[in-house]
Structure formats: structure tokens, C-alpha cells
Amino acid sequence: MCGIVGIVGKAPVAERLVDALRRLEYRGYDSAGVATIHDGLMERRRAEGKLFNLERVLAAEPLPGTIGIAHTRWATHGVPNETNAHPHFVDGVAIVHNGIIENFSELRDEMSAEGAIFVSQTDTEVVAHLLAKYLRDGMDNHQAMLATLNRVTGAYALVVMFKDDPDTLMCARSGPPLAIGHGQGEMFLGSDAIALAPFTNRITYLVDGDCAVMTSRGVEITDFSGKPVSRQMQISQAAALMVDKGNHRHFMEKEIYEQPEIISHALSHYVDFSTGTVKVQGEAIDFSKVTSLAISACGTAYLSGLVGKYWFERYARLPVEIDVASEFRYREMPLSKTQAALFISQSGETADTLASLRYCKQEGLPIGAVVNVRESTIAREADAVFPILAGPEIGVASTKAFTCQLAVLAALAIQAGRARGTLSAEQEKEMVCHLIEMPRIMSSVLNLVQPQVESLSRELSRFKDVLYLGRGTSYPLALEGALKLKEISYIHAEGYAAGELKHGPIALIDENMPVIVIAPHDRFFEKTVSNMQEVAARGGRIIFITDEKGAAASRLETMATIVLPNVDEVISPMIYALPIQLLAYHTAVFMGTDVDQPRNLAKSVTVE
Ligand code: F6R
After folding, report:
1. Alpha-carbon distance 317 to 502, whole Å?
2. Shared-domain flag, residues 260 and 196
3. CATH of the domain at 305
4. For ligand 1, is residue 168 a contact (CB within 6 Å)?
5. What span, in angstroms and rounded, lies between the C-alpha atoms of 410 and 417?
6. Backbone angles phi, psi at 492, to 5 degrees
7. In the chain, how many domains are there?
8. Does residue 350's CB lie within 6 angstroms of at least one atom of ligand 1?
9. Contact 2, 27 (CB under 8 A)
10. Is pLDDT of 606 > 80?
11. Inter-residue contact 73 to 28 (CB < 8 Å)
């Protein structure tokens, strides 16, 4: 994580660097810093916490200069304070870094033995020391950069500024993304193209193993041995995606409310409204031939994959192996070329998901990517890309990306069912009709439940622990509900398969532990109601999220019952996601937490 930017140009850069950092704050917000060179002086300003702290420092002590680098941090090594904030300076070298230097303690010992004094606890500072050492040894700046890159291991994106060369920035990629922006007599670099959108839409993406030397006149890219490589420039769509909160208090609220419209737009790419058929492009994966599907992702994206597993298995009779990416890649599971692999990621940059993708690729599996950011590394490395078309998701807690992932996975499962002969044309048409109806139902659900959920959230915010239960596709939703609540309200929450309750968690039930039960009136309803009885019998308070039929069929006393319209099973996960998201959102608002940028989190997780 961490966001990095750099500008080498002809006009002052400090303000523009901060402006670019603002669009990268989703990558981390523990501290921020900026450094420039002016009149032979290399200077920096740094501040702990959010970007506005840095802005305050800069307002008091402005930084002139037409070359500079900047950083917004998500702490890995060292607490989030000003000393650990980037840029790090050693002699005439300034550096910003995203990622982890794995051999940093070995290098730190080596440098310390040679007399280096470390002032921070970061792994980044060791890189600056290494560079300074190679410069002292007589290497020129580029040689020192390459020598350093050949010594450090890990996943990193680095940008280096040299005091003695105020028209050059050097950067390198080995893992986390780096985009180079081409301006008029100015060059830019950033962790993504959105950061650079106000400056340019002409972007060159570095690939792993690239080292770039950027001056105001252009960029030259080599590999880490110094051999020139050529990377294409492309026109980025990022500028079109610039966003603001509109009339909403938070991005998360805005993103929850834009779901009906966005899903409708996404569906139009996957569904032919006139014929009632799905139209998925992605010939690289032939569902009629694959013997099973391996799905991997992290966090909320993993939970959408878990819903997808139910769909692929039920509708396409296609076995699915699914795991969180951080486990998937290390399980050494046997894979065969008759399988296909699917990776789900909003950002398309999540390190564990990317590593799992590469593992499957190496094993020769065709790779599909369900991503939001189309220019991301995961999208670029996949054989077939299934964009979720959610637009930029700024709130750190994923909402609209989740439901759009679900919509795309539903279309893929239907496509797979048709290809494998397990769904008839009639069934396809019926399911597509439900999908087409979905945006309208989502819109009415958001209006319907909002007041009730808001007042319920006030009550929920008084509790310390919450349990979520569900069966079938409502089980991943229970997990998602718990994840959403804990990450933004900091209330401890757990999700369980309703049937697992009696195997342990039931011991927790008392009047201080609200139990949120997600149970549409589907095949599992009766069984879930039995689990609710078990909770009620032990004095547990139940918040029941069901539909009209479910509410009529249940006689249990609840703390609250949220009644949604009756909907078909294929769309219920997207519909039930809405009250779950709103409940987490309003509870967090009552708790007074930082809803869009919850503590300790970052939107794009490019470290393992
Ligand atoms: C939770 C959340 C995270 C992400 C996870 C994967 O609200 O947003 O759990 O889902 O970090 O991120 P992506 O989808 O970018 O791979």
C-alpha cells in the first residue's frame, strides 16, 4: 500500500504533489510527506496522520521547487509518526517507497556495521543508505540505482530523487504498481493513473523488473541490469473517473446509494435485455470444457467469490475450489490444465490475489479476472477480463464493488450453465429477467429500509459484539455483514453459517449479543428459523432480515425485523447486501468513526 507520486517539471510542484496524494489517500493515511529541490537545497515537510496535517505544515512553511516526490503511508515497518514518514533522506538521496523490503534487517545490519546511523524504524531507510553507499563508492546515480535494485528483495515500488541532479527522478517496480505520466515539458509518476489524471492522460505502466529514469523531457526504461526495454504509452480513462461525494456525507454513503444505477450499467455489458440472454466475452475460458474452477480473492472480494461458488456449483454443476488468496498460493494445491482460475479484485492490485494468479498461470490454467480497475496489474495479466464497471470506489469499505462483482459472477455462472447444458434457454431467460429487475428492486429497498435501519443502528452502536448468521448464499452475506460492521464501526462482529451456531458460538449468546439473521424465505428458511429459535431460547436478541413471506411465516419475537420484498434466489445476495451495508454505515456514523478511512486500513493492499 502507500501512495507515491513524483513530478519533474517547469512549474512549482509541491501543491500538485499534494493534490495527487489526495487521490492516493485510499492507499494509506497514517502519515504523509513531500520533498523538493530548489536552489541546490533538498528539503522536505512531513506530518503524522491525514493529508490535511501535511497541508497545514506546508501552508506554514511552503516548499518551492520544480522537482519533487511525495508519499502517503500505510505503516508496515515502524509506527505511524513523523520520523517514520517518507520521504527518507540520506546524504543527497531522497526516497519514497511502497511495499516491503524483505531483506531489510540483513541490509540494516550490514550498513550499521559500516557506520550508517538509522533515524527511522522503516525498511525504506535502508534503501536510501544503500544508494548513498554506492554513490560514495564512486558509482554515478544510475549505476547506484541499479546496484541497489539488485541488492534489495521484496515487493516494492521506489522513487528516488538526487540532490545533485535536479532534473531527474528514478523509479523502479517490483510488485506494487507505478504509472508514468507524459506531460508537455513535464513528466509525472504515481501509484496509479487516477493520481495523475489532472496532469495528463498519457500513461506508461511499468512492469515488474523495470527501472525508469525520468527527466522533464521524457523517460527511459531499462531492466535492473540496465538493458533498455520498451513499454507502450496508452491513453488512460482515469480522468473520466474523477469523483466527489456529491450531496452525501461520506463516499461510502454515496457508493451505497449509487448501486442501482451502477449495477444496471454493469449488467448492460453482460446481459442482452432484448433476448433475455447473457453475453459474456472472454473466449479464453471455455466453461463447457473446464472440469473445475479455482477462485481466489481477499476480504469482501473473497466473499463475493464465495457466493459465486454456490452459483457455479448449483447452476453450472461446476465444482469450485475457493480460498482467500493469502492461503491459496501457499497450499500447494494440485492444479490441472483442465481447470480454470478466477481472481476477483476491486483494485486489481492486491498482492496476495496477484501472487495466486501468477501461481495458477505458471501451472498453465486459463486465468479470468473480475476487476474494477481495468488498467490494473491483475487485469493486465489475465487471459480474460470481466470488468465490474462500478466506477471508482473511494470509501475504504467495499460496497458497490461487492454487488457489481456479484452481478458479474451471476452472469458468468449463467453463461457456464448454458455452456455446460445444465441450464435451459428458458431457465436462462427467467434468471436474466430477475437480473434485469434487480436495479429497480435495489432502488426501492434502499428507500424502504433506510429510516428503520438508521434508528436500529443507534441501538446497535451500544453493543460490543454482534453475530451474523445465514445459510446458503446468505452465509457469505453474514460474513460480509460482520466484516463491514467491524471494519468501519470497530464493533466486534462474527459471521457464521447458521447451522454452525450449535457447534460453539451458541455459548456466546446472551442479551448483550445481538444476532443478525439473514434469511430470505428460500429453501433454507425453515432450518434457519430453527437456529433462530435456539438463539431466542437463550435470551439472545434477534435482528431478522427477511422478506414478506419470511416475516409472515416467523412467529418469533425480534429486536427488529427488516422486511424486504420477495425476490428470486439468484438476486437475493445483491438485495440483502443493501440493509447490511446501511446497518454498518449508520452504526459507524453513530459511533463517530472515520467512515471512509477507518483506522489501520487501506483500500489497495499491495503487501502480503
Ligand atoms: C472490505 C474491503 C476489503 C477488500 C480486500 C480486497 O470492505 O474492502 O476486504 O475487499 O482488501 O481488495 P481488492 O478487491 O481490491 O482485491
Report:
1. 30
2. no
3. 3.40.50.10490
4. no
5. 10
6. -65, 130
7. 3
8. yes
9. yes
10. no
11. yes
Q: Which long-range contacts (C-beta less than 8 Å, at least 24 apart) are formed by 112-121?
A: 116/90, 119/83, 120/78, 120/83, 120/84, 120/88, 121/77, 121/78, 121/79, 121/83, 121/84
pLDDT per residue over 386-418, tens digit each? 999 998 898 989 999 999 999 999 999 999 999
Same domain for 397 and 299 = yes
From 255, 346, 606, the mutation candidate for ligand 1 (largest count of ligand atoms within 8 A of CB) is 346
Torsion of CA 526, 527, 529, 532, to 10 degrees: 180
**80-100: b (≥16 Cβ within 10 Å) or e:** bbbebbbbbbbebbbbbbbbb
* Active-site amino acid positions: 2, 603
The finding on whether 132 has its CB within 6 A of some atom of ligand 1 is no
pTM score, whole prediction: 0.81
The residue behind cell 540496465 is 226
Domain that holds residue 534: 443-593
Give the list of residues 6+ apart from residue 13 with CB closer than 8 angstroms, or none. Answer: 7, 36, 65, 66, 67, 68
User: 230 and 291: one domain?
Assistant: no
User: Could you write out the DSSP letters of every residue in 197-244?
Assistant: TTT-SEEEE--TTEEEEEETTEEEEEETTS-B----EEE-SGGGG---
Q: Does one domain contain both 199 and 274? A: no
**Ligand 1 pocket test target in 191, 298, 488 with most atoms within 8 Å of CB:** 298
Q: How many other CB atoms sit within 10 Å of the CB of residue 555?
A: 7
Q: Position of cell 443493501? A: 578
- The whole-angstrom separation of Cα 198 and Cα 456 is 42
Q: What is the pLDDT of residue 281?
A: 83
